[in-house]
Amino acid sequence: MATENSRQRVDTPGAPAPHLAAMRSPDRAGAPGGLHDAVLDLGGIRVRWLYDSDFHLDGGAMFGVVPKVLWSRRYPCDELNFIPLVACPILVEAGGLRILIDTGLGDKLNEKQRRNFGVRGPSRLEESLAARGLAPGDIDVVVLTHFDFDHASGVSYRDEQGRLRPRFPRARHVIQAAEWDDARHPDPRTANTYWRENWEPLAEAGLVEPVDGEATLAPGVRVVPTGGHTRGHQVVLLEGRRATALHLADLMPTHAHRNPLWVMAYDNFPLTSVEQKRRWLEAAVAGGWWILFYHDPFVLAARPDEEGWAELVRTGRRGLPGDKK
Question: Which domain holds residue 180?
Answer without folding.
Answer: 3-314
